[in-house]
Amino acid sequence: MYSRIINYPQNKSFFLFGPRGTGKTSWVRSAFPRAVYVDLLAAETFNDLLAHPGRLEQLVPQGFSDWIILDEVQKVPELLNEVHRLIETRRYKFVLTGSNARKLRRKGVNLLAGRALTLMMHPLTARELSNDFRLEHSLRFGQLPCAYTEADPKRYLESYVQTYLKEEVQQEGLTRNLAAFTRFLESASFSQGAILSIAGVARECAVERKVVEQYFVILEDLLLAERLPAFTKRAKRRMAAHPKFYFFDVGIYRTLRPMGPLDRPEEAEGAAYETLLYQELKAVNADEGLDYDLFYWRTATGLEVDFVAYGPKGIHAFEVKRTARVGSDALRGLKAFRADYPSARTYCIYGGDRRMEMEGIQVIPFEECLKTLPSLLAIHE
Predict the structure, then answer these.
(1) Domains along the sequence of the chain with CATH
(2) Nearest to 99 by CA among 81, 69, 121
(3) Rounded CA separation 53/83 (Å)
(4) pLDDT in tens, 260-316
(5) Rounded to 5 degrees, what angle do the CA atoms 5, 114, 96 make?
(6) Phi, psi angle pair for 7, to nearest 5°
(7) Going by C-beta distance under 8 Å and a sequence separation of 6 or more, which residues neighbour residue 10?
């Protein structure tokens, strides 16, 4: 198992959210070997606690003072009332893992406000993979732990899509029309890294617009995708307003996206580079507690910067280029952004192998950027 960088509180309960497959269960079992472990995916445990949430206390030995793990707590949201009571009356410490934010948001997660922090587990980062990191492998299969440990990562990812993205959605009763949802997933994959047009996706998969909007919400609730907002703070130009769309992991995106004779490989590969940097930005920001908000920047005239990290440590702007050479024209978006935000640190991340500076912009090889991202984002203006 890979060592994960998770800065959790030592004496305070916390939620650990993340998509299925990111390694939450493996990590909690390793990090808290003496904990009382309650697996809500186990049918007997699930049925018992669903019917009688108060029986949770009976699973904890008398005088126990270590951690209590509730794995996939969204399966029985009513347990949060009991968790709240036990934190208050017994001073128990809980690790509450989950991969579906929908049920908790609807059924009482607010009861733990101030009593449990919220942490996120993302796919592995280049730093966590260390010497095992292989750029081409990550760009094709992503960085879920099993994508690096399974002998056949392609088959693993296909199984993930089949058993989770489709069957889990159906089992949760989130949609009754699995065929339409499957068409939607394929259509959504063509929006990866692009400004999202819900109407366009609806036309492509022949589903009503309001249903497609619900499907996007399902993906977000399951932590499988998100919309990246446009950066418009103190804008000096007319800006794009619609968000961009990303599945949470490169491997999932590339498994969902079909490739046929009419599809250009460079389109999928370009989105893969962007996605990999984006998931690393999210993970490093969370792991290091940097408190950046992430955006993209695009003017009405088409000048664009792929990612903007905005927070207490300043503004960092990243443009991703897959090519091995970068000319002045490739820096137009970053130069325009810096003209509007002179204090911003600007980076062009490219497919070459030499680090350099061009017109005040740091041009960094892609792999080097991923491995040094924590130090880049830690720079304070």
Answers:
(1) 13-120 (3.40.50.300), 126-234+241-261 (1.10.10), 279-378 (3.40.1350.10)
(2) 121
(3) 9
(4) 655 666 667 889 999 999 999 999 999 999 999 999 999 999 999 999 999 999 999
(5) 50
(6) -90, 90
(7) none
